[in-house]
User: What shape does this take?
Amino acid sequence: MNLTAMMIVRNELDRYLAASVGSLLSFCDNVYVWDDGSDDGTPEYLETLDRVTVRRDDKSTFYTHEGQARQRLLD
Assistant: This one.
């Protein structure tokens, strides 16, 4: 059995991203991340990590339709 973590992020590079993903990777097999329009290098950083899959949106949709953003992550 595999354990997978999923998260939605936006402009988290200089915040808690490295610590959060590092912690998740210590016990999860992989991490799926939906980037909600970051412009600070967040997706580029995530793409360098093993066992992390990143999907990107050009513009933020989380605050206008959170359910749609979460469904994209699940898909």
Remarks:
- The first strand starts at residue 4 and ends at 9.
- The mean pLDDT is 89.
- The radius of gyration is 12 Å.
